[in-house]
Design brief:
Elements lengths: L4 H11 L25 E3 L4 E3 L8 E2 L6 E2 L11 E4 L4 E4 L2
Antiparallel strand pairs: 1-2, 3-4, 5-6
Length: 93
């Protein structure tokens, strides 16, 4: 079935008596950049759903509307967690 945002808007408007605003989200990210989740915000300028900022040091990628660490995640197949105190990845032992 082809996705039709207006069909959803019409249904929710009727269901809620016209209260609120509605934006369709997409599991595969084909529109509005990211699938909306709890705590996400909708940015009308970017037409995107944006997750909460995970750490103060992370910045928003304007193209993907996803948060990025100031240091790239290591590619050595080990597991890491972000350490905000050092603004670097810390190996999980």
């Amino acid at each position: 079935m082809k996705e039709q945002e207006q069909v959803g808007i019409d249904f929710l408007t009727q269901l809620n008596g016209g209260v609120g605003w509605y934006k369709q989200t997409s599991y595969n990210g084909t529109f509005r950049k990211n699938y909306a989740g709890m705590g996400y915000t909708y940015d009308s300028t970017r037409d995107a759903f944006i997750s909460p900022q995970p750490y103060n040091s992370w910045t928003l990628n304007e193209d993907t509307c996803q948060w990025e660490a100031p240091v790239a995640y290591p590619t050595d197949d080990k597991m890491y967690n972000w350490d905000e105190a050092t603004t670097n990845w810390k190996e999980v032992i």
